[in-house]
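RECORD TYPE: inverse folding
INPUT: C-alpha cells
STRUCTURE:
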C-alpha cells in the first residue's frame, strides 16, 4: 500500500467521526452509537464498506456518512473517479448491498 493510501485511511476515519457528529457535543455520543452497532453486528467494518463501494464505483472515497433510518443503517459515500466526476454511492451498512449510485452534478 502506498504511503498516501496509508495516510488516507486515518484521515478518512476522522472524517467519518466528523460526519457522524452534529457538533462537538454529539461527536462522542454518535461515535459510541456507531461502535455499539458494529459490536452488535448491525453494521460492517468501514474497510468492508469501502471495498464494496469501490468495487461498484472505482475511485477515491472523499467522504463517508453513516445514518440510521427506519431501523437500518446506511452508508453514503462520495467517490471521485479517475475521470474527475464525483459520484454518490449508498450502501446498506449491514449487508454491503449497493442501494443507489448517482453522478453528482
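DESIGNED SEQUENCE:
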Amino acid at each position: 500500500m502506498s504511503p498516501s493510501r496509508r495516510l488516507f485511511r486515518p484521515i478518512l476515519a476522522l472524517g467519518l467521526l466528523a460526519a457522524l457528529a452534529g457538533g462537538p457535543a454529539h461527536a462522542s455520543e454518535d461515535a459510541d452509537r456507531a461502535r455499539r452497532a458494529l459490536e452488535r453486528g448491525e453494521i460492517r467494518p468501514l474497510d468492508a464498506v469501502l471495498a464494496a463501494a469501490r468495487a461498484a464505483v472505482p475511485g477515491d472515497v472523499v467522504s463517508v456518512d453513516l445514518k440510521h433510518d427506519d431501523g437500518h443503517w446506511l452508508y453514503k459515500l462520495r467517490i471521485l473517479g479517475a475521470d474527475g466526476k464525483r459520484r454518490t454511492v449508498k450502501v446498506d451498512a449491514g449487508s454491503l448491498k449497493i442501494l443507489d449510485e448517482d453522478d453528482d452534478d
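NOTES: Residues 45 and 73 are 12 Å apart (CA to CA).
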